[in-house]
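can u do me a favor
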């Protein structure tokens, strides 16, 4: 079976890699996969025609400056689709790029399965027409999304969230400390500023200032996303003077599990932290123009996904002008200390994990998604 699979961000890559493994497990015939992705997708056997690093930008204003390059990569991917004629295409999140791709693939008669829904229920609901026209099936990972798409006449399936099944074995603390040169006697704080360069440049400086406010009584651990490099991240750490040592790691999940608390940029990492039970504060900032243009279109009372899933604020959200080093530091102090605030957040995060599971323990979320993709390919064939 010839598959085109496209994931433009680190979180999408993770889902795409798991989907590829599940497809190879369940498919009665070999899977030949190509598309857009990065290291995780390549490790799962996808030939990446376009590298995710070449299209990963954040914010309305930021996208405009990169349009010529994104346009070139978009057409490179389409040329490969024309050459290989895939039986089915799987597009993972990354809506601005993927809605255009879905239209182009639909015009070529290639069935499109969309895995991990864009947040149409939050903003720009008019784009639901694009789904209705160009997407054969939506595979959603949050339970409330299934109802939204059914209301709009879209074929949809809730697969469960892959992170709802996440099990990470805690490495011995002394061994992890020795590996990274950490003091095991100190409390460890994870710093997750995002997976895209512009995002990191907008968010990391304030997190570093928060670390400076908190002081050297903590160890600060920063896992480097697969879409970035340790060398580039090391350069970013030099932007704020007099910051306590920040140690780079390569495993975000183990880092979160090892940490007493975390500062986490809005996105999939907030779901990972919730599932792993690490208390955290959610932060986010985009360029002022992007915020001004986008905020008027958003109809949400919360931004952090765990808060949306729970239907109430269970983790603090510090966004745009509220995202200050002082507020981040104050929340981290409250989460590190044993007490009511920490206990309440830990309890509520366990509730969120339960909501993310589909209730069908016989198969993983990736396997359910794989069956849907195989079904779409068969129906089209």
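np, heres the sequence
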């Amino acid at each position: 079976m010839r598959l085109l699979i496209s994931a433009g961000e680190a979180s999408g890559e993770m889902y795409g890699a798991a989907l590829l493994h599940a497809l190879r497990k369940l498919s009665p015939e070999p899977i030949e996969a190509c598309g857009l992705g990065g290291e995780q997708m390549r490790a799962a056997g996808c030939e990446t025609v376009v590298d995710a690093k070449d299209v990963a930008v954040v914010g309305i204003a930021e996208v405009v400056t990169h349009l010529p390059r994104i346009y070139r990569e978009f057409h490179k991917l389409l040329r490969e689709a024309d050459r290989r004629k895939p039986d089915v295409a799987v597009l993972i999140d990354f809506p601005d790029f993927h809605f255009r791709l879905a239209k182009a693939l639909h015009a070529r008669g290639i069935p499109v399965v969309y895995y991990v829904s864009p947040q149409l229920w939050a903003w720009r609901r008019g784009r639901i027409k694009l789904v209705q026209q160009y997407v054969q099936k939506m595979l959603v990972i949050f339970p409330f999304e299934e109802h939204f798409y059914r209301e709009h006449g879209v074929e949809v399936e809730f697969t469960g969230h892959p992170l709802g099944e996440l099990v990470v074995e805690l490495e011995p603390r002394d061994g992890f400390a020795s590996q990274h040169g950490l003091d095991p006697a100190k409390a460890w704080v994870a710093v997750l500023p995002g997976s895209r360069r512009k995002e990191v440049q907008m968010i990391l400086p304030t997190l570093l200032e928060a670390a400076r406010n908190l002081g050297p009584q903590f160890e600060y651990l920063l896992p480097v996303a697969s879409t970035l490099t340790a060398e580039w991240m090391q350069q970013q750490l030099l932007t704020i003077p007099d910051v306590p040592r920040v140690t780079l790691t390569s495993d975000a999940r183990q880092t979160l599990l090892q940490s007493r608390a975390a500062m986490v940029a809005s996105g999939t990492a907030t779901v990972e932290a919730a599932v792993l039970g690490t208390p955290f504060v959610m932060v986010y900032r985009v360029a002022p123009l992007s915020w001004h243009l986008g905020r008027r279109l958003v109809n949400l009372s919360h931004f952090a996904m765990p808060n949306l899933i729970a239907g109430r604020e269970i983790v603090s959200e510090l966004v745009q002008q509220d995202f200050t080093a002082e507020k981040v530091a104050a929340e981290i102090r409250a989460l590190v200390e044993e007490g009511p605030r920490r206990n309440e957040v830990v309890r509520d995060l366990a509730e969120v994990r339960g909501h993310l599971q589909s209730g069908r323990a016989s198969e993983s979320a990736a396997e359910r998604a794989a069956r849907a993709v195989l079904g779409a390919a068969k129906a089209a064939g």
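The chain has 17 helices and 13 strands. hope that helps!!
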